[in-house]
Amino acid sequence: MESITRMKIMATTSDRSPPHATPGAIAPLALLMVLTACGGDSAGSSGAAGEAATEEVAEAAPVEFTVDPAQLPEGVTVEMVMEGRELFNGGGICYTCHTVAATGGPLAPDLTDDVWLNVDGEYESIIELIKTGVAQPVEHAGAMLPRAGMPLTDEQVEKLAAYSYMLSRTSG
To answer: Mean pLDDT over all residues of the chain?
Structure first.
């Protein structure tokens, strides 16, 4: 019988920093990428939504869920899910629109429920969505650029997709 791994997703500062970043060195670039990825503009049209999203990130609670290897798509490992979590909360900028708890907000959808707005929720379609982005979201104010406007490799996209896939299939 395969073991089940328990993950606790914590909203800490260390979770939001890229692993090899020099403090302050990437802040201006990260801000630009966040505004771009979440559909913000210099005129401030998403001001209220952006402020609400910032508050939600600050107030995000830890997410606990069980990763059952039997639920993983073929070729996906528990390690990929864990590395996807790290990318979501640090190496990528996903948490800025989806929140650290992945519960969404004005700019992006909740990834912890079983409602999928722009794809069917299957692993391969999540990969494709991350790669191509969402130019015209079904709901929410923020469009998502291809690869969230980040220089993500295909391997990183697969890990983010693995994490997103499991978020919607949580049991905690």
So the answer is: 74
Could you give the CA distance from residue 64 to residue 57 in angstroms, rounded to a whole number?
17
pTM of the predicted model, to two decimals?
A: 0.67
Whole-number Cα distances in Å, 25 to 31, 35, 80, 87, 93: 12, 18, 28, 18, 16
The pLDDT assigned to 25 comes to 39
pLDDT value for 84:
93
User: Which CATH number is 5-167's, of 1.10.760.10, 1.20.1440.230, 3.10.20.30, 1.25.40.10?
Assistant: 1.10.760.10
**Residue at 88: amino acid letter:** F
